[in-house]
Every structure is written in structure tokens, then in C-alpha cells.
Amino acid sequence: MTSFHVQDMTCNHCAGAITRALKEVDAAAVVQVDVADKRVNIDSKLPAASLAAAIEEAGYTPITV
Q1: Which of 3, 14, 50, 58 could form a disulfide with 46, with the two C-beta atoms 3.0–4.6 Å apart?
Q2: What is the pLDDT of residues 2-38, one digit of tens each?
Q3: Measured distance CA(12)–CA(35) in Å, rounded
Q4: CA-CA distance, 26 to 36, in Å (whole number)?
Q5: CB distance 63 to 5 below 8 Å
Q6: In sequence order, what are the residues at sequence separation of 6 or more whose Cβ sits closer than 8 angstroms to the Cβ of residue 33?
Q7: In this structure, what is the dihedral angle of CA atoms 57, 27, 42, 38, given to the nearest 10 degrees?
């Protein structure tokens, strides 16, 4: 499980954009987003750097937790 704090994720639209970006790089990933806590948990076989890059490409700033 990889977790990120995404301070600039402020709404459900943001959560959807991040989820779509992660699913594009790993369709089998299980993504859990908590907008209130600004946390994204991903169960994926990809390395954290690849997941962070996908979130960054979607326009957000992930910080590893």
C-alpha cells in the first residue's frame, strides 16, 4: 500500500481526476481517496515514484506519507 498526502486536492472532482490518472498507469490498482483528510491510498504493484508521477501529471502535488 502506498499513501500520499495531496494538499491541493480540495473536492470530489479532484479525487476523480487523481483516481483516473492512477488507473491510467495501473488499471488493476485499488485507489481509496479521502478528500477531507487529503489522503490517497493506492494498492498497486507499481513503485511509489510511478504513482506520484501520475498524480503530478494530473496537476496535483503528492507527498509520500
Answers
A1: 50
A2: 999 999 999 999 999 999 999 999 999 999 999 999 9
A3: 7
A4: 25
A5: yes
A6: 9, 15, 18, 19, 39, 40, 41
A7: 50
